[in-house]
Design brief:
This protein is mainly alpha-helical and 197 residues long. The protein has one domain. Helix 1 runs parallel beside helix 7, helix 3 packs antiparallel against helix 4 and helix 6 runs antiparallel to helix 7. The N and C termini lie close together (8 Å).
Length: 197
């Protein structure tokens, strides 16, 4: 694999290989929490924090515990445990710092634990054999890309709700999926700039 630096991988994870818009991971909370920009910003920030932290921790656990002890087959379980612990931490912090945001996120905050985008980041970094710095860049970039996508979606949905009339059959999930597909097409314009595969 070509030796890519921290910033190249970070840029690529945000734009050219966006975890949400090119791999379609993390769609349930993306569609469920993208009605208001404030909620999307809060969830996006939480995803950035959890993804960046767990990708680094999972890399360390994988490289220094699972591989030396020949326990690589346990990586799914170990990665999920690390992710669950961090989500609990984020949930406690958000509840203490901003109760309105905590209430607005509702069930979707605990669902970060099972957000396949976060687990996907850890698995992709192992499959692609990233170094520590590359894993850190990929984790931060993937979280930022996911947050960028949900905030953009929330802005579009909020504007549509205020200023336009959507046909009755497309209200709700219908228009959300159309917007997500259009955003995915827009992000495809970045393809070929940097390839992580």
């Amino acid at each position: 694999m070509q030796e890519l630096g921290f910033f190249a991988i970070l840029f690529s994870a945000v734009f050219t290989n966006n975890i949400l818009l090119t791999n379609y991971l993390g769609m349930c909370s993306f569609l469920g929490c993208s009605r208001e920009i404030k909620t999307a910003l809060g969830l996006g920030s939480a995803v950035i924090f959890v993804t960046a932290a767990t990708s680094v921790l999972n890399w360390l656990v994988y490289a220094f515990i699972l591989v030396p002890l020949d326990l690589v087959y346990l990586r799914f379980i170990v990665f999920i445990v690390v992710i669950a612990a961090f989500v609990q931490l984020v949930e406690m912090i958000i509840e203490r710092v901003s109760e309105p945001l905590y209430n607005a996120l509702g069930i979707f905050l605990p669902l970060i634990t099972v957000n396949c985008a976060i687990l996907g980041v850890s698995l992709f970094m192992v499959i692609r054999e990233y170094t520590f710095t590359q894993a850190a860049g990929y984790g931060l970039g993937s979280g930022a890309g996911w947050a960028l996508a949900i905030v953009a979606m929330a802005g579009i949905r909020q504007r549509l709700a205020q200023r336009s009339r959507i046909p009755r059959g497309l209200e709700g999930p219908g228009i959300a999926l159309i917007i997500a597909g259009t955003m995915a097409l827009a992000f495809m314009g970045f393809n070929g700039m940097i390839n992580l595969n």
